[in-house]
Amino acid sequence: MKKLLFLLIALISISFISCSKDDNVTDPTTKVDPWVGTWLSADANVAPILVALFSYDSVRVTMNADKTLKLDSHIKDGAWSSLNGVYTVTKSTTGDIHSISINYTAFEQEGIFQVTSGTPDKFKLEAVQTVPDIGAVPRTPATGFGSDAALGTFNIQNYVRVK
Questions:
Q1: In angstroms, what CA-CA distances link 163 with 14, 33, 72, 74, 103?
Q2: Which residue has the higher pLDDT, 107 or 27?
Q3: What is the pLDDT of residues 26-85, one digit of tens each?
Q4: In sequence order, what are the beta bridge partners of 157?
Q5: Contacts of 89 (CB under 8 A, 6+ apart)
Q6: What are the boundaries of each domain within the chain?
């Protein structure tokens, strides 16, 4: 009987000294970069140069956390076409405009982007083709959007978050 009483007291004692709520370890939340997601540019948000040269009326880009992306473009009164690629972001140390390099199979682009939180979130991109070289000079966070004397704002693409 003494052994049973001792065992019961030991069990009750253990229940009071077991892990408290603050001892529980939870999985850390993975921080996702604000540009990760699916973005849509349609109608007046499509860069005028894309409308003029390619007759685009919509562009959708999905940027994944693993640095892959999918670019879908739609030609007015036509079909969607897709390109897959990878991207590299160089985060600015002085502001919210960052540098981006995008590599597709057939060509590469460089430029700048900015994500603005809101309802919906907005993604502003100005990128030019750098490979093969067409003589375009990528904008940098220091030079800013629309600073190319030849292109001005003609090459700025505005997106809204859809996912």
A1: 48, 14, 15, 19, 23
A2: 107
A3: 556 789 999 999 999 999 999 999 999 999 999 999 999 999 999 999 999 999 999 999
A4: 125
A5: 33, 35, 98, 99, 100
A6: 37-161
Burial of 10 (0-12, 13-18, 19+ CB in 10 A): exposed
Report the CATH fold assignment for 37-161. Answer: Lipocalin (2.40.128)
Alpha-carbon torsion, ordered 157, 127, 152, 75, to 10 deg: -50
Helix (H) / strand (E) containing 48: helix 48-54
- 109: which 2 tokens? 């682009």
Give the Å distances, CA to CA, from 94 to 97, 141, 142, 148: 9, 9, 9, 21
